[in-house]
Amino acid sequence: MSSEHRPEIGSTVAIQKSAFNALLNNLKEQGYEAIGPHVKNETLVYEPITALEDLPRGYVTEQEAGHFRLIYLGHSRYFDVIPGAQSWKQFLFPSRKELFSLTKNDGGWKMEEGEKGTPAYAFIGVRGCELAAIQIQDNIFLRSDFNDPIYRARRERAFILSVNCLHPAGTCFCVSMGTGPRVNSGYDLNLTELEDVFLLTIGSESGRGALTGVPLEAANGFVLNAANRALEHSASQMGRKMDTSDLPELILNHLDDPYWRSIGERCLSCANCTQVCPTCFCWDTLDTLSLDGNETRRTRVWDSCFNPGYSYQAGGNTRPTIHSRYRQWLSHKLGNWKQQFGTLGCVGCGRCITWCPAAIDITAEVVALREETSR
Amino acid sequence: MTTPVTNIKFASHADRLLEPVWAEITAITPEAEGISTYWLKFVDPAAQAAYSFLPGQFNMVYLPGFGEAAISVSSDSEDRSLVGHTIRFVGNVTRAVSRLKVGDVVGIRGPFGAAWPMQEIEGRDVIIAAGGIGLAPLRPPIYYIMNHRERFGKVYLLYGARTPSDLLYPNEYKKWEQAGIQVQITVDRADENWQGQVGVVPMLFYRFRMNPESVVLTCGPEIMIRFVVYEGLARRIPAENIYVSLERNMKCGQGSCGHCQLGPYFICKDGPVFRFDTLESFFNVEEF
């Protein structure tokens, strides 16, 4: 296949791994800032990348409840590493965003917009579970009755290069949640990494545009079969699973079960799970007032239902105990979310398990609640 | 004559998140110890002309440097000249409100939330049961009933506060009675001058005979709401005819920030007024 031939949307092509830089250059020329997984301070973060060499070649992660290790194996693959604590949420729904500042002027307040301009990100390496999480947040921030201007502007400009996950980690359960390891839809380009080549499925006109001038090869039956086999194998390697057949009723019908108290005894209410969760969307606002009282900045920040102040109201705290906060989190995520937004709020990425300092495992808690309540 | 054109965006589709519209305090009415009503007029006359609310809705009141508080509108929804907010000085923002003077400016976003079903309940007997500051969001329905008295059957106001000096709007009760609303007042603790009833609001249900076709509108402390609902149900008023207004930590007013969730609901957007049958399954779950 010659590079002049423009592939159709929906088709799959192959590129040499070294040709990936041409793709990144195209994105840069089109005004995107590419963000991808990158090893920094001995862990994995999502950061601006400029070349294939910035990606974590040769790395994997080992993940268990309350356990994360980045391990260098030295192989030649760039996308074997399962993501760390960070997710793409921080780019579309920034953890801290100045909305506006106000300055006193004769009796009133003069408003000035916060940081101006909207970044155009190209997300490189979005997993199936992560793309599903973005789509869940779309339901929250882009509703017919409420449209979040910050999220909307960033989301509309974003380019998504997703990745089929071939080496799931110990806390992964995307198969149970129907979000992976094969990426479903909603990408501009979807990548499958084989030993020698990247396969790219074109999902949109932008995806096709990003391949302009990139030397393309035909994805023959041999490589397509190899990719399919690798994905089937991947699906059989999930570290965890969750039976969703009785959700959300299992939780919503047992809100008074004593089992919640036993979780409350283990949970530290540290809010880690909500900060690493790619679908958790709660936010708060802060006013930062200058010492003379003449200037204030209004900022939106992430919040968590585990924070004691979260449910504070004039009469006191609605959820003063840890077990009531955990129940709020789980009964929202695997329960009421469905009524609110049409899906469960969990994509099976496993972050809340990996990053829980008390090693609380959402999949195990669901099993335990099921056993407890079926006695 | 030209129609005034306005691009004021009050509610959910503002181009800038949480952008307030400025309003000036034109008068302050002290109501009780630690509670006053603030009468607001939007600085921009076009904003004043564009603003309207339904009984039971609330605004987010913003004090730069302090933050926002969700406050129900307590004035007459059919009087568009001013917006009234009865505010209890209890939190960070509302204590700062207590230091404001006439002429000061506050930010307003709103109106938000579901209203009392004033049209749907026409033709019915109406029991309004309020406790403490809970009378504030129930004053607009009282005004609405007074404005359209012939559209309603018997109307009772059952109101209670901790002490006689905590009672809201005492100067208006006579006017309400003259308009054909039976006003029953009770206090938790009497003082030496109190001639009226002593006890909690739900006990007032024992003082008259009600039609099971009545509609109950109630707002107050959650424990009071619980017992008002019990008394209503005990008199064969179905849960579908009992409406409650709930309080939670509301921040965005648009069902986005998550704070005010109760089960599947965002109180700020799906409430604060709910038909009780839609709440029944989790209303009694402790700390939910």
Write a structural description.
The complex is a heterodimer of chains A (375) and B (288). With 375 residues, chain A is α+β, with helices and mostly antiparallel strands. Chain A has 2 domains: 12-96 and 118-235, no CATH class; 249-282 and 306-373, no CATH class. Chain A has 13 helices and 16 strands. In chain A, the strands form 4 sheets. An 8-stranded mixed β-sheet of chain A has the order 3-2-8-9-10-11-1-12, with helices on both faces. In chain A, helix 9 packs across helix 11. The longest helix of chain A is centred in the C-terminal third of the chain and has 20 residues, at 322-341. The termini of chain A are far apart. Chain B folds into 2 domains: 21-112, Translation factors (Elongation Factor Tu (Ef-tu), domain 3, Beta Barrel); 126-245, Nucleotide-binding domain of ferredoxin-NADP reductase (FNR) module (Rossmann fold), CATH 3.40.50.80. In chain B, a hairpin with a 3-residue loop joins strand 3 and strand 4 (67-72). Chain B has a 7-stranded mixed β-sheet with strand order 10-9-8-7-11-12-15. A 6-stranded antiparallel β-sheet of chain B has the order 4-3-6-1-2-5. The model of chain B is unreliable at 1-9 (pLDDT under 50). Chain B starts with 20 loop residues before the first strand and ends in a 5-residue tail after the last helix. With 288 residues, chain B is an alpha/beta fold. Chain B is globular and about 50 Å long. Chains A and B meet through strand 6, strand 7, strand 13, strand 14 and strand 15 of A and loops of B.
Low-confidence stretches of chain B: 1-9
Order of helices and strands of chain B: EEHEEEHEEHEHEEEHEEEHEH
- Main beta sheet of chain B, described? 7 strands, mixed
How many β-strand stretches of chain B?
15
- Largest sheet strand order of chain A: 3-2-8-9-10-11-1-12
The chain-level structural class of chain A is alpha+beta
Distance between the termini of chain B: 55 Å
Mean pLDDT of chain A: 95
In total, the number of domains of chain B comes to 2
Percentage of residues in helical conformation of chain A: 25-40%
Q: Portion of residues in helices of chain B?
A: 10-25%
Shape of chain B: globular
Instruction: Determine the oligomeric state from the structure.
Output: heterodimer
- The number of strands of chain A is 16
Unreliable stretches covering 5 or more consecutive residues of chain A: none
Radius of gyration of chain B: 19 Å
Radius of gyration of chain A (Å): 22 Å
Number of helices of chain B: 7
Mean pLDDT of chain B: 93
Largest interface: A-B, 51 and 46 residues
What is the H/E string of chain A? EHEEEEHEEEHHEHEEHEHHHHEEEEHHH
